[in-house]
Hints:
Blueprint: E1 20-24, E2 27-31, E3 45-46, E4 55-63, E5 69-79, E6 85-91, E7 93-94, E8 102-107, E9 110-115, E10 120-126, E11 128-129, E12 137-141, E13 144-148, E14 154-160, E15 162-163, E16 172-176, E17 179-183, E18 189-195, E19 197-202, E20 205-210, E21 213-217, E22 223-229, E23 231-232, E24 241-245, E25 248-252, E26 258-264, E27 266-267, E28 276-280, E29 283-287, E30 293-299, E31 301-305, E32 311-315, E33 318-322, E34 328-334, E35 336-337, E36 346-350, E37 353-357, E38 363-369
Antiparallel strand pairs: 1-2, 3-4, 4-5, 5-6, 7-8, 8-9, 9-10, 11-12, 12-13, 13-14, 15-16, 16-17, 17-18, 19-20, 20-21, 21-22, 23-24, 24-25, 25-26, 27-28, 28-29, 29-30, 31-32, 32-33, 33-34, 35-36, 36-37, 37-38
Amino acid sequence: MILALAIIGYNLKDKEEFPHPLCLNNICVYEKHNGELAFEKYFDGANEFTKNGLARVKTNHKFNNNAIREFIPSKNGYINLKGEVVIPQIYDWASDFLDNDLAIVGINDKCGFINSQGEMVVPAIFDSIFFVGNDLSPVEIRKKWGFINQDGKIVIPIIFESVNDFDTNNLASVQIKNKWGFIDKKGKLIITAIFDEAHNFTNGLALVKIKDKYGFIDKTGKIVIPATFDMAYDFSESGLAVINIKNKDGFIDKTGKIIIPATFDRAYEFTKSGFAMVAKNDKYGFIDKTGKILIPATFDMAYDFQINGLAEVVVNDKYGFIDKTGKMVIPAIFDMAYGFKNNRLEAVRIKNKYGFIDKTGKMILPDTFDMI
């Protein structure tokens, strides 16, 4: 999606030299790490640069010498690191480029693939493309789904009512006559379509629904955790899954054993921080994998811990930040906060003005912007 707020940080793994977009008053520029403009070009929408050195941009207006904006139809294209438009802004919508050097573009309500040279390698003939970087991509034509390869060849017929992408087990859940099953990459039905709902496999198990109850199957289709839960969610990397029993949430392990009793009004999966957010009586806090309360449920709302060890919380409609002990390290004084980006800066709003703070709460850029 086109970014609606200023992106100060980004994935630094292999893009240290890349500028990043900054948007103010719906006008976007690209900024270097030292705060200087990368180039004097303006856009109404801008995304980060991908590994191939291209960034998707969008222009709704053109600018004259007096900076007066004149409305023209919205189109998407791509620029290089010099700010030069190398793929024309002719697309109704477009995705970022992925590692396979392909991007989805839309023209006249149809979509296809282009490469980084702007060549249409897969014609825009599909109603929808679900593209996540696998060698096979789900596509839709006339409300039916199938799979194409990166050359656009249909390798699994477009016959399914709905599909999910292939998972790490090379299986994809598909819907046939209102029931869900699983196919392999040749289109062969591996697990019979007998489920009312089926998610892809995560950590060796797949969540399924049978007669309004949820359970889990293995890769052979065998039910290994009976469908007895009112609701359930996929297993996370922690090896635990959130389940719901009589409107209360808890956690089970991969044997189906209840590890943390279903006593919470709402529970969220464990993250890499080792914390899970839970709610009781409309207040939010955090627990560990044993169910021990690490941070009491005293906040009006809370969000996951970020890589800098801070989590956003809401107190009396104001946003602040706590550390992993629950200590309020940045006071809850902001009308809105938008999430730290890779341990760098946080966009905040105070009385309809926007600015940026660092992880100590210090205002780095003053709260004078009308929009970010």
